[in-house]
Design a protein that fits this description.
This protein is an alpha+beta fold and 619 residues long. The chain contains 24 helices and 13 strands. Strands 9-4-3-8-10 form a five-stranded antiparallel sheet, with no helix packed on it. The chain has a two-stranded antiparallel ribbon with strand order 1-7. Strand 5 (342-344) and strand 6 form a beta hairpin. The chain is globular, with a radius of gyration of 25 Å. 47% of the residues are buried.
């Protein structure tokens, strides 16, 4: 598999090697090179192009899952943590966006993927007869699905963009000025996404009998598939059913359509929940709940974003200064607390490095997870094991140089902070240390299930809400599951929506879901923009903790030893509607606007050319 992805990356160099100075500096490649290379002449070459496009897709992982999907939420405390490592990108944590701080440039380069999809469609129209008909339909299902995905990310992030659906340069147009294109009306842009989704489903349905061992490997998880399109279709219609943007008014009927797509995923493709949460995250092959992922070989994921949230005892300053209960395997906790990064044998008093911390691949702790997130978990919930909690030493323990504490009482020690080790990777060959070896999971079955809970809540189906939430909780609690104690009891629309949001927040940390949930989910069915969770107290990471905090007055936020108490926020919205409502969409970068006079800045932001700040989003 690793060698296969090396060939994928080599193929990307072929399809992406000739970028032109063109409209928006966005998207148009010159694919005439393929003719010179004898490309697009066989079925194998068309299939190989899809292999290359999947490697290009992988290039969006960090930006979509972390930078766009989580960094703007309140998962992370926007100050330097207890480790002493410097914070990255503070303005992103504070949601400080303007025309000079856009976070991304050129629409996050989504038009590169769109352009390559357009190139495929052009040559498929010209030479697709070299393929068997069922192969041709399957590949078209993949192409339309991936193009719809790229357009949908632009819609969620920017409202709309240029609607490029043709390979202009291939058709002989090399004139930059005639290639300039302004943003499409939002409704037109959204309709194109829905059209692409429908085309993907139609072509997949017409591909009966087609099989490709590369596409099918490992349950087909590494390539765009019929189930991936169904997941995307559900997301598109759920978003358009609940989120108004520009001239698009949220259409309640779309929520019912979304439900059908999510039900198709749950019922028609043979997916099932893995036995445990750890299995779901860290089982790489034959994972029965993964729908679509991008592949990473040994060490390829060792520098991915989750390393900004873990801890490395060789560089971190917290070693030996806090209590930690992570056992040597890194996946279980003990009731005996050890000095951070060490293990002291209670029988002999001998102190050694904890091999988990000594051998795992990790990076510096650049983002400190809020303690409020940790407090949301019950101790019986297996998902709490993704945390590496660090508790302060008491003055007595410091004075007596205590190295371990048996029967450690979590509630009588102050939580300084937590690190995360959700992705365990695999042991490397010839080494005990963990390798950066986890795939990036875009879609897995629990996502479809909790989307169905959201659809059920919209329909007023309380029994459905309970059923779907409890399916996820039952797996999370495992042997500790007690429906009377941990099962969900339905409430009002807002209470149900909040419970679904909080369940997703626990299940999908580091999988890039929370920002989009805050944007889409709402406290009022059919309410106004202000009712979305991103502007409401229910969207606060500490919402609902008031009773727990009252019982545990020492529970607070990040607490380096000696620092003042910082209370947990339980009702502070992520964004203030009155002053920040425009920043739910990203601004365009000045370089892009300067290169293409047809583009207009996102409403609410400014640009030096005043003629370029009109509200395109409303036309």
């Amino acid at each position: 598999m690793k060698n296969r992805y090396k060939s994928i990356l080599a193929s990307v160099a072929v399809i992406g090697g000739a970028w032109l100075m063109q409209s928006c500096d966005l998207d148009e490649t010159n694919p005439n090179q393929f003719d010179a290379l004898g490309f697009w002449n066989t079925q194998t070459q068309f299939e190989g192009n899809l292999t290359a496009l999947m490697a290009q897709f992988r290039g969006y992982d960090q930006n979509m899952m972390f930078n766009a999907g989580e960094l703007r939420t309140d998962y992370y405390w926007p100050v330097q943590g207890i480790d002493g490592s410097g914070l990255y990108g503070a303005e992103w944590n504070y949601n400080q966006y303007d025309e000079g701080h856009t976070q991304f440039s050129k629409y996050m380069d989504f038009y590169g993927l769109i352009s390559n999809c357009n190139t495929f469609l052009y040559y498929e129209n010209e030479r697709g007869s070299v393929m068997a008909e069922n192969c041709r339909n399957y590949l078209l299902g993949m192409i339309y699905g991936m193009r719809a995905w790229a357009f949908f990310q632009i819609h969620k992030m920017y409202g709309t963009g240029p609607l490029r659906v043709e390979a202009d340069v291939i058709l002989g147009n090399y004139d930059p000025e005639s290639l300039y294109m302004t943003q499409a009306p939002v409704e037109d842009f959204l309709n194109q996404i829905k059209s692409d989704v429908a085309a993907s489903i139609q072509h997949f349905n017409a591909s009966t009998g087609y099989s490709n061992s590369i596409f099918n490997a490992n349950r087909g998880v590494y390539y765009w598939s019929p189930a991936a399109t169904q997941m995307l279709a559900g997301e598109v219609y759920l978003w358009s059913g609940k989120v108004s943007t520009g001239n698009h008014v949220a259409n309640p009927a779309d929520v019912a359509t979304a439900k059908q797509h999510f039900q198709n995923v749950v019922n028609n493709y043979g997916y099932s929940l893995m036995p445990t949460y750890n299995d779901a995250i860290n089982t790489k092959t034959n994972n029965t709940e993964r729908i679509f992922s991008t592949y990473y070989g040994e060490n390829e994921a060792s520098t991915n974003w989750w390393n900004y949230i873990t801890w490395d005892f060789t560089t971190g300053g917290a070693r030996n200064n806090y209590w930690n209960c992570v056992e040597q395997d890194g996946t279980t906790w003990s009731t005996t607390a050890q000095r951070l990064a060490y293990y002291t044998d209670p029988a002999t008093g001998v102190k050694n490095f904890n091999q988990f911390y000594n051998t795992k691949v990790s990076g510096q702790s650049r983002y400190q997870v809020r303690n409020a997130y940790f407090y949301q978990f019950d101790q019986e919930d297996s998902r709490i094991k993704i945390f590496q909690p660090c508790y302060q030493l008491t003055e007595e323990e410091l004075e007596n140089d205590v190295q371990f504490v048996e029967n450690f009482d979590f509630d009588n020690h102050i939580l300084a902070a937590c690190w995360i080790w959700k992705y365990h990777g695999l042991p490397q060959a010839g080494s005990e240390r963990f390798g950066g070896y986890n795939d990036m999971m875009y879609y897995r079955l629990p996502l479809a299930i909790l989307y169905l809970a959201e659809c059920a809540n919209y329909e007023g189906d309380n029994a459905g809400v309970v059923n779907y939430i409890n399916q996820i909780r039952e797996r999370a609690y495992g042997a500790n599951w007690d429906v009377n104690k941990y099962g969900y009891t339905a409430g009002t629309f807002a209470e149900n929506e909040t419970a679904i949001l909080q369940e997703k927040t626990k299940e999908f940390f580091q999988e890039g879901q929370r920002w989009w949930d805050l944007r889409r989910m709402t406290t009022v069915k059919g309410g106004t923009d202000k009712d979305h969770m991103v502007f409401q107290p229910q969207g606060c990471i500490g919402y609902g903790l008031d009773a727990k905090l009252a019982a545990h007055p020492t529970w607070g936020e990040i607490r380096p030893t000696g620092n003042p108490f910082v209370p947990i926020e339980t009702a502070t919205p992520v964004l203030n509607y009155d002053t920040q409502k425009h920043i739910v969409l990203w601004p365009l970068d000045a370089s892009l606007l300067g290169s293409d006079p047809a583009l207009m800045q996102t409403p609410g932001y400014t640009y030096t050319d005043q003629d370029r700040t009109q509200p395109w989003i409303e036309h």
